[in-house]
Backbone:
């Protein structure tokens, strides 16, 4: 979501003549868009800020601005630690970010509107809702992003149409829980139908889904609407009902498994990916083994696994973080190894198959393409194919990467 928001800011700033540069040495303003979901993301941001501060000593006029969730959570504490930061704007103040930053700078009005920073990428992202009401006990998002708010479907459809006009062929609809999207009488399935009606748009993806809210309406539209890709990211987090309850996820493992069955019955080639947290407070060896067994049973197309870390304000912050870090690392490594093994087997099964791919980019005559269920396939070609959907035959698998020929 931060990539999408940074893109949108890039566009908004460009209307003031403030354009992106590739090298920090050429920058007059450095804007750091931060994430607070995990402690590690914050540590990375701090270390980056340390480097930018050193850079400011060589170029004192440069402005440093910190935005996003970490800015919301820590606010002025960031400024106290890094004295050279000019502005800290929290995620809840996102509406007037552009105005606040533009006010800080000496904007050259003559450049205004001359160039618009509208990326012409084949794959674009659009935020359809902000915030979250779910208060999973480990998650800081509702505290830093506020309550869930669905954006006007007309604005979303217009935004998507503009992206398609600028060359996008695939759009990813983003929200913390897209399944609970509701604006007036338009729910997520109806929104998807409206976006799918946009001419020249070839593919739609969406994330993230919450297993408690994913419903038959959406599954039916995934079957019906060919523009919807056969991939879904459905965070499971744990397969232990005791841990799911402590996480305040509001579903059971049996419910999750039922959704997996429904999805696979409805869409035979669907790839289901997930998120897993290991070492949540109270997670016993048996709870962890239940999760590992579920991974082996479900055979996810891919997964992100995280070692639990305490986040301030959350309910789990009060719980005893009783799984030692070494044990978290062990569980993390085993889950990752199992997931990589399953992923390699899935990829190997694709050898010799014909896949419909979208050509996303090209480098040195090798096109980077993606299958409908989200796997990258590298294919020899030329730039005329960019943005086209092709059928390719998968002829080789090397280190989990797929290589193919145009059919
Ligand atoms: S659904 Fe849960 S994990 Fe996802 S953003 Fe909301 S509170 Fe966080």
Residues:
């Amino acid at each position: 979501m931060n990539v999408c928001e940074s893109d949108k800011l890039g566009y908004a700033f460009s209307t003031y003549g403030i354009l992106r540069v590739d090298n920090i040495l050429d920058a007059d303003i450095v804007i750091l868009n931060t994430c607070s979901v995990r402690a590690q993301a914050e540590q990375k941001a701090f270390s980056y800020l340390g480097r930018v501060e050193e850079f400011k000593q060589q170029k004192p006029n440069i402005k440093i601005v910190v935005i996003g969730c970490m800015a919301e959570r820590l606010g002025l504490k960031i400024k106290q630690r890094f004295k050279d930061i000019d502005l800290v704007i929290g995620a809840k103040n996102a509406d007037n970010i552009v105005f606040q930053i533009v006010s800080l700078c000496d904007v050259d009005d003559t450049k205004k509107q001359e160039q618009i920073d509208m990326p012409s990428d084949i794959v674009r992202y659009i935020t359809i809702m902000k915030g979250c009401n779910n208060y999973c006990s480990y998650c800081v998002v509702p505290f830093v992003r506020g309550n869930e708010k669905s954006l006007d479907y007309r604005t979303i459809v217009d935004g998507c149409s503009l992206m398609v006009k600028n060359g996008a062929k695939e759009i990813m609809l983003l929200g913390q829980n897209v399944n609970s999207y509701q604006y007036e009488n338009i729910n997520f399935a109806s929104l998807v139908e409206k976006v799918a009606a946009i001419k020249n748009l070839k593919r739609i993806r969406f994330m993230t889904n919450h297993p408690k809210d994913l419903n038959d309406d959406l599954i039916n539209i995934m079957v019906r609407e060919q523009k919807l890709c056969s991939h879904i990211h459905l965070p499971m987090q744990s397969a232990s009902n005791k841990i799911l309850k402590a996480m305040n996820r509001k579903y059971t493992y049996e419910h999750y498994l039922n959704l997996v069955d429904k999805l696979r019955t409805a869409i035979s080639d669907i790839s289901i990916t997930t998120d897993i947290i290991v070492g949540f407070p109270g997670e016993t060896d048996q709870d962890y083994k239940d999760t590992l067994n579920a991974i082996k049973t479900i055979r996810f197309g891919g997964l992100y696994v995280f070692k639990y870390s305490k986040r301030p304000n959350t309910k789990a912050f009060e719980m005893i973080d009783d799984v030692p870090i070494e044990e978290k690392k062990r569980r993390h490594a085993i889950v990752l190894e199992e997931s990589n093994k399953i992923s390699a087997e899935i990829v190997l099964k694709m050898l010799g198959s014909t896949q419909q791919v979208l050509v996303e980019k090209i480098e040195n005559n090798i096109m980077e393409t993606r299958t409908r269920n989200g796997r990258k396939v590298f294919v020899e070609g030329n730039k005329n194919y960019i943005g086209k959907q092709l059928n390719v035959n998968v002829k080789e698998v090397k280190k989990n990467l797929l290589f193919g020929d145009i059919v």
